[in-house]
Amino acid sequence: xxxxxxxGVWRASLPVLVGVLGIGLxxxxxxxxxxxxxxxxxxxxxxxxxxxxxxVSKAPAPTPSPEPLPPRVDCTQVPxxxxxxxxxPSAYSEALLDKLDELGVKVTFFNTGQxxxxxxxxxxxQVESGHAVGGHSWNHVQLTTISPADAxxxxxxxxxxxxxxxxxxxxxxRPPYGSWxxxxxxxxxxxxxxxxxxxxxxxxxxxAAQIRDHAVGDSRAGSIVLMHDTVAESIEALPSIxxxxxxxxxxxxxxxxxxxxxxxxGQSFYNGPRAG
Length: 276
Ligand SMILES: [Zn+2]
What we know:
CATH architecture of the largest domain: Alpha-Beta Barrel
Distance between the termini: 104 Å
Radius of gyration: 34 Å
CATH class of the largest domain: Alpha Beta
Helix content: 40-55%
Bound molecules: zinc ion
Number of domains: 2
């Protein structure tokens, strides 16, 4: 009993003792010549220094998320034409990309998955140069000859190869031979099929003058012009095509730029908006 009661007294007096000790310590620290208050602020300064790297690592954050560039031109108001190149990348790709750089023109490449896997550096360069990219099946299969599910798997596999090569995820698909149907589009509703309304027939004629005449003469506002990465004469004709289209008052843009907003998936287009 005596033990417990003395323990009780001890317990009761403990807060008092702690309080007295606390006051004593506080009074003592007040008597000290300002050293503890000085060392106290230095600690937070060090903490700030420690967080500085965090601030530094925060600094580049705005850089990877720049404001998206405004469209160079509003193709719903101004007549535009989109040049497109199918079947690449090929042995001609680097020469074609050099020529496009010289001309300062952005185009759209519809690459096959297999050629992308074979020449990933060319697809990377297409994207880095500011061109748009889309898929053109894995190995140029006529997608309507396989099941809609298989056609979608083929389109996805091709898109994956393009993403692996360039980092860009594309949902644009140009079906080989322009061959598509509603069942295919319904099954691949996350894709948009991009056809064309101007056929240069470059793969058939291999004639630079005829290719130029089709590209320049047959284009209207919103036209999508079909050419091939694999046809040397199309590269040869390119300067006169660009000059001819500009002379006719057309802005040359990529396929996505034909629209003034992102193209919703699950659609098919033969041309963009017919401005004017
Ligand atoms: Zn093709």
